[in-house]
């Protein structure tokens, strides 16, 4: 066997592997989109899954052509909703209100843990 025959065999193997991975990505994206779409009835979802099993490449192309725009809209909506939930959670847990900070500092002052000067410094930092 010559070098070029081995090279093209290796090239063909990598090309086939890339196409297969892209196909799997498409199938899982479509299945995820099917179950994310609440407007589509269960029977239509079952029909799409059935055809994905028995005519996979044709069904993948037909689905992307027929429902690709809605697929993008649902993905954008999901991403926006996830970002809003993450932002809301971060805002809720990250920073206490100025009143909470001052009350914590006052409790430390009353316990004798900090001096009145430190309390004043904390209070001025929080109120700025």
General description of the model:
With 128 residues, the protein is mainly alpha-helical. It has helices spanning 3-36, 42-54, 56-94, 98-111, 116-127. The mean pLDDT is 88.
Key features of this structure:
single chain; 128 residues; 5 helices
Topology:
Elements: H1 3-36, H2 42-54, H3 56-94, H4 98-111, H5 116-127
Helix pairs in contact: 1-2, 1-3, 2-3, 4-5
**What percentage of the residues does DSSP assign to strands (E)?**
under 5%
Radius of gyration: 29 Å
**N-to-C SSE string, H for helix and E for strand:** HHHHH
Global outline:
elongated
Name the quaternary structure: single chain
Tally of DSSP β-strands: 0
Largest pleated sheet:
none
Q: Structural class, judged by helices and strands?
A: mainly alpha
Helix content: over 70%
Number of helical elements: 5
- Taking pLDDT < 50 over at least 5 consecutive residues as the criterion, the unreliable ranges are none
Spatial separation of the terminal alpha carbons: 78 Å
Mean pLDDT: 88
Question: Concise description?
Answer:
This protein has 128 residues and is mainly alpha-helical.
